[in-house]
Design a protein that fits this description.
This protein has 227 residues and is an alpha/beta fold. The protein has ten helices and ten strands. Helices cover 38% and strands 27% of the residues. The radius of gyration is 18 Å and the shape is globular. 36% of the residues are buried. The structure holds adenosine-5'-diphosphate (2 copies). GO terms for molecular function: ATP binding.
Length: 227
């Protein structure tokens, strides 16, 4: 579904991604892992063109991503990041509904979807839908960030340390929730982390990056049994 074909990206003179070759099939949950600065975020952001590649190709369903309209591409992909980035003056409901509103969903459909997502993430819709982000705990904000990424039921979810900076209990709960969502929906998910336990728990395949290149790739079992 997503193919990096000898893809490269430099910032000024600094190479961030150097000749990346990777095929992500529909329904996979691929974890990009590696030390800070290894190119994980850059690889992820190139998929929805938050960052543009400058060498090789990136294909979505066989077509170079530069041939898609950027807005269409981003709406097709949910994006969730560690810093969450909720709009501070918007309610939980409006934050979650950002993309559905852009897509012109009806008020009833949006309301039903927000109720469904808050319930999925164990947040009582009656209590939470009209709250503002600062009236939520960090873990709840992060849930809302992930709910927002899922709202329009995108084919692809891109997640950059979505559970970073959470206490271990909340983190574990959200990891399990993501695993359930993935198994139930068959969505294609690309997740950046530097937490090896998270990678082993969630990934169908783990891609280990170093200095913009793949140094190891395989299922959790394959990597655990590698010499
Ligand atoms: P990671 O997500 O693994 O920490 P990044 O993709 O953020 O790695 O960064 C890869 C390399 O590219 C690093 O050397 C980083 O300093 C550099 N880099 C990332 N973003 C930018 C940017 N916007 N401008 C300049 N250099 C960048
Ligand atoms: P992450 O690992 O989640 O990308 P960083 O702290 O590395 O977090 O980067 C935060 C932001 O700063 C990102 O948007 C990234 O593209 C940008 N960035 C990272 N490294 C550099 C750099 N060397 N110069 C300029 N911008 C950078």
């Amino acid at each position: 579904m997503i193919t990096f074909d000898n893809t490269s990206k430099s910032y000024g003179g600094t190479s961030a991604i150097a000749g990346l070759n990777l095929n992500i099939a529909r329904g996979e949950l691929v974890v990009l892992i590696g030390p800070s600065g290894s190119g994980k975020s850059t690889a992820l952001k190139m998929i929805n063109r938050m960052v543009d590649h400058d060498g090789g190709r990136i294909l979505l369903d066989g077509k170079e991503i530069y041939s898609f309209n950027v807005r269409d591409l981003r709406r097709r992909m949910g994006y969730a990041i560690q810093s969450v980035g909720l709009f501070p003056h918007w309610t939980v409901e409006r934050n979650i509904a950002t993309v559905p509103q852009l897509l012109g969903w009806s008020a009833e459909r949006i309301e039903a979807r927000v109720t469904e997502l808050l319930t999925l993430f164990a947040m009582d819709p009656v209590q939470y839908r009209t709250r503002l982000p600062h009236q939520l705990s960090g873990g709840q904000q992060q849930r809302v960030g992930v709910a927002r990424a899922l709202a329009a039921d995108p084919d692809v979810l891109l997640m950059d340390e979505p559970f970073g900076a959470l206490d271990p209990v909340t983190r574990a709960a959200l990891q399990l929730e993501l695993k359930r969502v993935h198994q139930a929906s068959g969505k294609t998910i690309v997740l950046v982390t530097h937490d090896i336990d998270e990678a082993l728990l969630l990934a169908t395949r783990i891609v280990l990056l170093r200095e913009g290149r793949i140094v190891q790739i395989g299922t959790p079992l394959e990597l655990l049994s590698a010499p």
